[in-house]
Amino acid sequence: MRARGRSRGRRRRLAASDRAGPFGTPVKLTDSSPRRHPTVTSYVDQLPATVRSHIQAVLNDFLHAKASAADTDQLPREAARALQDFLDAGGKRLRPLLCVIGWHAAGGKGSPASVVQVASSLEMFHACCLIHDDIMDGSATRRGAPTVHRAFTAHYAHGRSKEAAERMGVSAAILVGDLALSWSDELLHTAGLAPDQLFRVLPLIDVMRTEVMYGQHLDVTATGDATASLERALAIVRFKSAKYTVERPLHIGAALAGAPARTQAALSAYALPVGEAFQLRDDLLGVFGDPAATGKSCLDDLREGKHTALIALALQHADDTDQRLLRNRLGARDLDEKDASLIRRVLIRTGARDRVERMIQARHARARQALAQGAFPPTASRALEDLAHAVTARSA
Fold first, then answer.
1. Most exposed of 74, 181, 244, 340 (fewest Cβ within 10 Å)?
2. pLDDT in tens, 1-35
């Protein structure tokens, strides 16, 4: 009851903040003295750092309230703490950032504070996806820290066998991921949205979740069964990453501002190539990246036998010797750095790495062309262009 009461209080505060800037700073959208009161558009130049800090503040407040409520009700506090630790470990906050930019690209109508909370709900849902994804992949680290199931395994190790502790760790992490899913709904429904905003946004949330689950299913069922099918690899890219990471967050933000269909279509023309480039870069980093920068092992994707565009292209162009190496060692749980080094040489020798780089650049160019043809506010276009460069040229 206390948690719901607090949510009602938050809803009242958000509803009263329609004249607040997107991150709480007073602003008049029609102010004739912009030097004294910065306009909403002036925030776009500072979006990456500013949005991340305010998203983090919303999540921190929410999880602190959940931990306090757990104490009061004598429920396990470590669930909220595990989520807090997971979110504190880092992350790009790309989806909430795009949600805010999408809102601005569509005119920035409505309560900015509500937009920030909806954006925060996307990050909470993403936590659910990553926690469960790490379990499916058997990953040991995420963002340079132990994955949630590994952290719980260590937490529950005392007095238990290795197998019992691992089972406990996985079970606890699944439940924490489920809580993140539930709490993402709570953040969304307590954001103080008007009925018409909820009417526009909820179908997009449903579609986003459905698409990423189908994408994950495609990924899981293709893992360990890598083939030369580039089409199959790109289907995984589109549903697991391009739509989920870029297109739908932009759509959700734009829907909050009441965007018409033509604006959503223009955002899609930008989002899909950027999202595909983002995942193609991720695939390269998963094999060639520096673990100190990425926070993940550069052996995991190879040990799991991930079916990526990189691997599909290598299989298309490998000779018989390289084909045997790829088919024998990809997906081997005992794959070591020596094996990985041999596979990397094949990926370079077959031209697969260079082809993926060209695919990334081609998609970046398509996204820039879409921006040039779109009718977005200049500051939103600039933010989207900078973001396209950042996600395609990144090293982490």
1. 74
2. 334 343 434 333 333 333 333 333 322 222 332 22
Q: Distance between CA atoms of 385 and 377, rounded to whole angstroms? A: 12
Please name the residues in contact with 345: beta carbons below 8 A apart, sequence gap of 6 or more: none
Residue 70: partners with Cβ closer than 8 Å, 6 or more residues away: 76, 77, 79, 80
Q: How large is the greatest C-alpha to C-alpha distance in the chain, in angstroms? A: 71
Q: Determine contact, residues 300/134, Cβ cutoff 8 Å.
A: no
φ, ψ for residue 26, nearest 5 deg = -55, 140
**Amino acid identity, position 327:** R
Q: Which DSSP symbol is given to 107?
A: T
Closest CA to 58 of 19, 84, 21: 84
Taking the alpha carbons of 296, 298, 303, 307 in that order, is the dihedral positive or negative?
A: positive
| Contact call for residues 169 and 175 (beta carbons, < 8 A) | no
What confidence tens digit (pLDDT) does each residue in 189-243 have? 999 999 999 999 999 999 999 999 999 999 999 998 889 999 999 999 999 899 9
Helices (H), 295-377: 300-304, 309-317, 320-329, 337-349, 352-373
- Please report which residue ranges of 37-77 form alpha helices under DSSP H: 47-72
